[in-house]
Amino acid sequence: MLSKQMDAGNDDRQIPAVADLDAVASDRDAAGIPVHRGWAPLGGRHRWMEPFVLVLLAGGEAHGYAITAQLAEMGITNGSVDIGQVYRTLRDLEEAGQVTSSWSAEPVGPQRRDYALTESGYAAIDAWAAVMKERARLIGEFNARYLEAVSAPRKRM
């Protein structure tokens, strides 16, 4: 089910209705925008990679190795990006209907699968953006309280 997004009245993209967002967000604000309070686990072993893969595909279709290189450039892991994890995420997103794939038509080099977002994928980015916004707010809250605490004389017990 889809409902019209109301972002300052300028955006006519369709986003999932409130009931469809429960898989990503745990709460909604007064306007019905999904928010996530806290850091509760949101899913399986690689669910955290989903928003990054989706947002990279929002820039245009890409193959798995190109996505992996962009993820590494972003520094989303402490080491190298697990290519298997990227492909598992792409497969899960495709099974969920958020991504489609097709064999590349490149006349040179090995054939690769190109991945592209569907309308459902764009809706998922909107939901993830709300989650990330809330997490950024929580990080800001933590940082403000931390700076307040460390700028005061330390209480010794």
CATH class of the domain at 45-124: Mainly Alpha
On the 0 to 100 scale, the average pLDDT is: 78
The SS-based structural class is alpha+beta
In percent, how much strand structure appears in the residues? Answer: 5-15%
Show unreliable segments. 1-25, 37-46
Tell me what the structure shows:
The chain has helices at 50-58, 64-74, 83-95, 119-151; strands at 2-4, 14-16, 27-28, 34-35, 62-63, 99-103, 113-117. With 157 residues, the protein is an alpha+beta fold. It has a domain at 45-124: Arc Repressor Mutant, subunit A (Orthogonal Bundle), CATH 1.10.10.10. The protein has a three-stranded antiparallel beta sheet with strand order 5-7-6. The chain has a two-stranded antiparallel ribbon with strand order 1-2. A hairpin with a 5-residue loop joins strand 3 and strand 4 (34-35). Helix 2 (64-74) crosses helix 3 (83-95). The longest helix has 33 residues, at 119-151. It is elongated and about 70 Å long. The model is unreliable at 1-25 and 37-46 (pLDDT under 50).
Helix and strand arrangement:
Layout: E1 2-4, E2 14-16, E3 27-28, E4 34-35, H1 50-58, E5 62-63, H2 64-74, H3 83-95, E6 99-103, E7 113-117, H4 119-151
Antiparallel strand pairs: 1-2, 3-4, 5-7, 6-7
Provide key terms for this protein.
3-stranded antiparallel beta sheet, Arc Repressor Mutant, subunit A, two-stranded antiparallel sheet, alpha+beta, 4 helices, 157 residues, single chain
